[in-house]
């Protein structure tokens, strides 16, 4: 872990850049082709660059653990329940609209698809 010192706090950020990437070395050992070896080296350099950028962003945002990012992105239970209520309400309204369209189609002797096209609603 690399130590990150802020204004008044010290954070331990994972040292992403200096972690060993044994898989690249092993892949190079099994490669007889110089083009493949060059591609592996290029991929390794790209990975190293991405890890460095990630580590810099984590330092900038004062994130000491990668799992903190997932926690912040995951909605809390209250938000999940609200979303489920909204989806249920949406489905109820959609079902009601389809029932009305079906009644109109039956009354006019048309297909549901024709009524939906007529009122500018796309079918599923």
TrEMBL record:
Provide an example Pfam family for this protein.
Swi5
Cellular component per GO? Swi5-Sfr1 complex; Swi5-Swi2 complex
Which GO BP terms apply?
meiotic DNA recombinase assembly involved in reciprocal meiotic recombination; meiotic joint molecule formation
Q: Which residues cross the membrane?
A: none
Family annotation (InterPro entries): DNA-repair_Swi5 (IPR010760)
Q: Could you list this entry's UniProt keywords, alphabetically sorted.
A: DNA damage, DNA repair
Family, according to the entry, reads as follows: Belongs to the SWI5/SAE3 family.
| Protein name as catalogued | Uncharacterized protein
